[in-house]
Specification:
This protein has about 260 residues and is of the alpha/beta class. About 40% of the residues lie in helices and about 20% in strands. About 5% of the residues have low confidence.
Length: about 260
């Protein structure tokens, strides 16, 4: 009986170092990454059973503002690399902004066959509402506005536009029937949910500026080995393969 406390003590001493190796990081991610990020995190943690990666999804612009105000995110994945670069310039990152993907914009509908559909077809009177992300703080919304302006459709279609807070909410507006067509991210159109519900067609990329997506380890994440490990993983071949499955291309050279 006298030896039990000593045995328990030795067990605790042995376990404490292993327990302290566990770490948690919090990621702010653009909502176009919602499905791809789940697979990235699962793959990353496969050999790290004690660690945790928590992800919050939303609009890139909103997260940019929150990080400037001190939000405790360790990594920030933006649908537009310009936002992370601004944080780097403001001294709010632990390193440079790194590109991780090139996104694509599509027209998606729950009820229409989108094969051969063009932006000009949005003028069809039967299309009463068109969902886009808010261009003020969502990069996909900004590119949607650029494409509609490039084709001379912005002012003509503006009364029919309904705006989502972010690109995931925009997809929800279309999938719920609150909009007949949605201008959404290809990564969401290829998700298990939307791929079975409707169809999509790509918007010609030359109609808008490229959706070069980038990330940073934030100043809050500086010194966290798990944050740096995830940053390195995202640029690995395994991560790129997952991103490709959701329609993301590798970022252009020189970004």
């Amino acid at each position: 009986m006298k030896t039990m406390p000593r045995i328990l003590y030795l067990l605790m001493v042995c376990l404490v170092p292993a327990m302290t190796l566990a770490d948690t990081v919090v990621i702010a991610a653009a909502s176009d990454m919602q499905f791809a990020m789940r697979e990235l995190v699962a793959d990353f943690l496969r050999d790290r059973p004690r660690d945790r990666v928590e992800v919050v999804y939303g609009s890139s612009g909103r997260f940019h503002a929150q990080i400037r105000q001190g939000a405790p995110f360790d990594l920030y994945f933006s649908a537009d690399i310009r936002y992370p670069r601004q944080l780097v310039a403001q001294g709010l990152s632990a390193g440079p902004a790194r590109p991780y993907a090139l996104g694509h914009l599509v027209l998606w509908s729950r009820d229409r066959d989108m094969q051969g559909f063009t932006l000009g077809d949005l003028l069809d009177p039967s299309i009463a509402r068109i969902a886009i992300a808010n261009p003020r703080h969502a990069p996909y919304g900004r590119r949607a506005e650029e494409a509609l302006r490039a084709t001379g459709l912005w002012e003509r279609l503006r009364p029919r536009l309904v705006m989502g807070e972010n690109i995931a909410q925009t997809a929800q507006l279309a999938s719920s029937g609150n909009a007949q067509v949605g201008v959404i991210a290809l990564s969401l159109a290829l998700s298990p949910t939307l791929a079975l519900q409707g169809s999509h067609v790509r918007i010609p990329p030359e109609l808008h500026s490229p959706l070069v997506q980038g990330f940073i380890v934030t100043r809050h994440g500086a010194g966290k080995p798990l944050a740096q490990a995830f940053a390195d993983y995202v640029q690995s071949g395994a991560a790129r393969a997952i991103l490709r499955r959701f329609g993301f291309e590798p970022p252009p050279e020189g970004e």
